[in-house]
Amino acid sequence: MTLNLLPTTLLVLYEAEHIEWDYIPWQPLCLAALLSLTFNFLTNFGIALFGPLIISIGMLCGIPASALIDILFRQMPLTQTFIVGSAAVMVSFVLIAFPMAKMWRKMEKMCC
């Protein structure tokens, strides 16, 4: 953030860039900043409390849920990309959630 402050300040001071403060949507901007702060705080708190596995599973499940909300409430079309992406997220969920190494060891013991 500090690195971005210097070029922005120089552009405004030398009038290469003009910012019209009246046209900035302050309410959505502040709400987005507050939601981002809340998300980051809860993510860090959740990692400290539950561990990174639970948080990563929750974040993975949020991606298809968000797309599903877009389809149901914003009438976005259900595309093949959505289906493939949701399937990929669910496969990654399975790979993270289940102890695959233990399952492979049990299968090796049963076969040999």
From TrEMBL:
Name assigned to this protein: Uncharacterized protein
Organism: Ditylenchus dipsaci
Annotated transmembrane regions: 23-42, 49-69, 81-101
PANTHER family: SUGAR PHOSPHATE TRANSPORTER DOMAIN-CONTAINING PROTEIN
Keywords: Membrane, Transmembrane, Transmembrane helix
Membrane among keywords: yes
InterPro entries, per the entry: Solute_c_fam_35_mem_F3/F4 (IPR026505)
